[in-house]
C-alpha cells in the first residue's frame, strides 16, 4: 500500500483499495466506548462496598430516600464539575438520562423563571453547535424540540451568531454545550465563550445552557485543561438559573454502571428534585458508596484518569501519525488533535465523507455514518467523519486507520 503520495492517481488508489478489501478486515472505529482494558482499571469496584453499607453521615445506603445522592460522592466530584456540593445531585448511571429528564420536566412543568411550560409554547428551539453529539440531537428529535445548527470555532460555538439568535427569538430556549474536549472535535471552550454564554441577553426568560461536561477529567496529555466556571459566571451576571451542568463516571469507572451528576442553581435543583421525586424514591446509593470508597477523594479520580490516559493516548497518537503521514499536504483534509475526550474529527473535501464511509464499510471497517454529527443526520457539506479509537486494541486501531487512509485517497482520486 502506498502511503507516501498525498494524492494518488485513480488506478493506484483503486489497486490499494482492492488490496485492502482482499484482507477481509472486520474492524470498528464507531464506538465511543472504553475498552475492556480500561474497564479492568475499575475491577475493584465490583467487590465494593463489601459488607459496608453505612455512609459517613450514617445513611443506610441499602434503604430508600436520599434523593440528592450520597454526599461523600458529591464531595469527590464537586471540584471537577465546578459545582458547589449542595448544588450537586448524584443520581443513576447515565447523564444522558438526566438531560432527557430535565427537558421532559421543562416541557411539563414551568422552569424557574418561565412564564409557562414548554409544551404550551408554539415552538421550542435549541441551538446545536455543529458538529456535535448525535444523542443530544436525538433527545430533541424525540421530544419535538427543533434544532438550529450554529457553527463551532476553535473556541466553542460562534458567539456572534449565538448572541444574535438568542437576543431576537424567544422560542430559542436552550443550547447544547460540551465545553471540554467536545464530542466530536475536541474543542475546549475559551473563558470568553463561557462568559458570553453566561451573560448574554436572551429573549426567552427561561433560556437554559445544557452544559454537558462529559469529559471534565478525561485528559490525553499532562495538561489538565480547565474551563471557566459557568455556574459562577452565570450567577455573577444575574443569570444563576441559566446553566444545567451534567457529568458522569461512564468513562471513568464502568460505562454501564457508573454514576451521573447534575448541578445547577439552588432554584433549579429544588425544581428538579421535586419533579424527579415523583418518579423515584431515590437513586442507587450503594453504587454511590461503592464509587466513593473506590476513589477516596478528588485526587483519587485524577490518579485513576492518568491510568486511562496511559491506555488510550497511544491510540490517539497512532491516528495522528497515520493522518500526518498520509495527508499532511493534502488540500481539504484536516483533523482535530484533541487534548482529551474520546474522538477525532476528520474533515475531508466537500462531498466525499459519505463515499469514504461507504468504501470503508465495504472493506470491513465500520465508521460512524457521515452526517451523524449534524442535526437531522445531514451534513450539508458532507465533509465530517467522526473517529473513535478508544475501544479496539491498539493494533486494530492502526490497521483500521491505515485502511481509512486508503479509502480517503480513493475517494479523493475519484473526485479529482
Ligand atoms: N455526553 C457526551 C458528550 C458523550 O459523548 C456521551 C457518551 O459518549 C454522553 C454524554 C453519555 O454519557 P452517559 O453515559 O453519562 O449517559
Automatic annotation (TrEMBL):
It comes from Pseudonocardia broussonetiae. The lineage of its organism: Bacteria, Bacillati, Actinomycetota, Actinomycetes, Pseudonocardiales. The keyword Iron-sulfur does not apply. GO terms for molecular function: L-aspartate:2-oxoglutarate aminotransferase activity. Pfam families: Asp_aminotransf. SUPFAM superfamilies: PLP-dependent transferases (SSF53383). Keywords: Aminotransferase, Transferase. This is Aminotransferase. InterPro entries: AspAT_Ic, PyrdxlP-dep_Trfase, PyrdxlP-dep_Trfase_major, PyrdxlP-dep_Trfase_small.
Amino acid at each position: 500500500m502506498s502511503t507516501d503520495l498525498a494524492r494518488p492517481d485513480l488506478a493506484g488508489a483503486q489497486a490499494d483499495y482492492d488490496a485492502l478489501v482482499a484482507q477481509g478486515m472486520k474492524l470498528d472505529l464507531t464506538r465511543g466506548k472504553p475498552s475492556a482494558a480500561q474497564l479492568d482499571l475499575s475491577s475493584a469496584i465490583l467487590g465494593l462496598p463489601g459488607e459496608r453499607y453505612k455512609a459517613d453521615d450514617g445513611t443506610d445506603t441499602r434503604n430508600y430516600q436520599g434523593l440528592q445522592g450520597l454526599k461523600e460522592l458529591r464531595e469527590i466530584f464537586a471540584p471537577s464539575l465546578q459545582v458547589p456540593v449542595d448544588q450537586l445531585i448524584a443520581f443513576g448511571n447515565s447523564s444522558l438520562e438526566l438531560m432527557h429528564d430535565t427537558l421532559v420536566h421543562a416541557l411539563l412543568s414551568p422552569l424557574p423563571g418561565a412564564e409557562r411550560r414548554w409544551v404550551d409554547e408554539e415552538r421550542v428551539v435549541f441551538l446545536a453547535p455543529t458538529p456535535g453529539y448525535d444523542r443530544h440531537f436525538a433527545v430533541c428529535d424525540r421530544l419535538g424540540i427543533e434544532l438550529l445548527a450554529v457553527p463551532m470555532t476553535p473556541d466553542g460555538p460562534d458567539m456572534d451568531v449565538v448572541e444574535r439568535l438568542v437576543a431576537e427569538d424567544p422560542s430559542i430556549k436552550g443550547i447544547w454545550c460540551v465545553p471540554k474536549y467536545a464530542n466530536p472535535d475536541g474543542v475546549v471552550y475559551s473563558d470568553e465563550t463561557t462568559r458570553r454564554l453566561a451573560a448574554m441577553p436572551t429573549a426567552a426568560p427561561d433560556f437554559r445552557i445544557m452544559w454537558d461536561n462529559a469529559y471534565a477529567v478525561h485528559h490525553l496529555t499532562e495538561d489538565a485543561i480547565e474551563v471557566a466556571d459557568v455556574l459562577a459566571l452565570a450567577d455573577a451576571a444575574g443569570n444563576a438559573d441559566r446553566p444545567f451542568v451534567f457529568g458522569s463516571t461512564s468513562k471513568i469507572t464502568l460505562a454501564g454502571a457508573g454514576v451521573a451528576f447534575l448541578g445547577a442553581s439552588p432554584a433549579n435543583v429544588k425544581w428538579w428534585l421535586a419533579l424527579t421525586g415523583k418518579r423515584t424514591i431515590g437513586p442507587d446509593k450503594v453504587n454511590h458508596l461503592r464509587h466513593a470508597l473506590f476513589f477516596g477523594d478528588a485526587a483519587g479520580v485524577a490518579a485513576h484518569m492518568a491510568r486511562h490516559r496511559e491506555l488510550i493516548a497511544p491510540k490517539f497518537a497512532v491516528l495522528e501519525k497515520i493522518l500526518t503521514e498520509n495527508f499532511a499536504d493534502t488540500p481539504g483534509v484536516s483533523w482535530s488533535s484533541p487534548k482529551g475526550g474520546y474522538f477525532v474529527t476528520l474533515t475531508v473535501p466537500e462531498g466525499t465523507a459519505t463515499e469514504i464511509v461507504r468504501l470503508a464499510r465495504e472493506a470491513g471497517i465500520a465508521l460512524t455514518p457521515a452526517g451523524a454529527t449534524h442535526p437531522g443526520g445531514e451534513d450539508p457539506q458532507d465533509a465530517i467523519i467522526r473517529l473513535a479509537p478508544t475501544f479496539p486494541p491498539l493494533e486494530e486501531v492502526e490497521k483500521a486507520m491505515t485502511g481509512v487512509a486508503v479509502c480517503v485517497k480513493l475517494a479523493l482520486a475519484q473526485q479529482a
